[in-house]
C-alpha cells in the first residue's frame, strides 16, 4: 500500500465514524417506553398497598396487645391509607418533574439547532 492509499482509507474511515456518530446522536423513541409507564404504575400501586398493609398490621397488633375492639385497626388502616396516598403523590410529582426537565432539555436542544 502506498501512503496515498492509506491517507484515502483514513479519510474514508473518519467520514464513516462521523456519520455513525451523527446517526447515533439522534434520539429515537424507545420501543419499551410503554413498559416504563407500566413500571411506574406498579410502583404507585405497591406504595399504596404497602401503606395499607403496614397500617393494618400495626393496628391489628395493637388491638391484640391491648385486647381492645378494632379501634386501632381502623385508625392505623386509615393512617396507612393516608401515608400510601402521600407517598404515591410524591412519586407522581417526582416523575412529573423529571418529565418536564427532559422536555425542557429537548426544547433547548431544538432551539439551539434552529
UniProtKB/TrEMBL annotation:
Query: What keywords are annotated for this sequence in UniProt?
Result: Coiled coil, Hydrogen ion transport, Ion transport, Membrane, Transmembrane, Transmembrane helix, Transport
Protein origin, superkingdom: Bacteria
Q: What Pfam families does the record point to?
A: ATPase_gene1 (PF09527)
The question of whether Magnesium is a record keyword is answered with no
Q: Which InterPro entries match?
A: Atp1_alphaprobac, ATPase_put
Annotated function? A possible function for this protein is to guide the assembly of the membrane sector of the ATPase enzyme complex.
Q: State the similarity comment.
A: Belongs to the bacterial AtpI family.
**Name the UniProt record assigns to this protein:** ATP synthase protein I
Q: Kindly list the organism's lineage.
A: Bacteria, Pseudomonadati, Pseudomonadota, Alphaproteobacteria, Rhodobacterales
Amino acid at each position: 500500500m502506498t501512503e496515498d492509499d492509506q491517507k484515502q482509507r483514513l479519510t474514508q474511515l473518519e467520514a464513516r465514524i462521523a456519520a455513525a456518530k451523527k446517526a447515533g446522536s439522534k434520539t429515537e423513541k424507545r420501543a419499551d417506553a410503554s413498559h416504563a409507564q407500566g413500571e411506574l404504575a406498579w410502583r404507585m400501586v405497591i406504595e399504596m398497598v404497602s401503606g395499607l398493609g403496614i397500617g393494618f398490621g400495626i393496628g391489628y397488633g395493637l388491638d391484640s396487645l391491648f385486647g381492645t375492639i378494632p379501634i386501632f385497626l381502623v385508625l392505623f388502616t386509615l393512617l396507612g391509607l393516608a401515608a400510601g396516598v402521600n407517598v404515591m403523590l410524591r412519586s407522581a410529582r417526582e416523575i412529573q418533574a423529571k418529565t418536564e426537565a427532559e422536555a425542557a432539555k429537548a426544547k433547548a436542544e431544538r432551539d439551539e439547532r434552529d
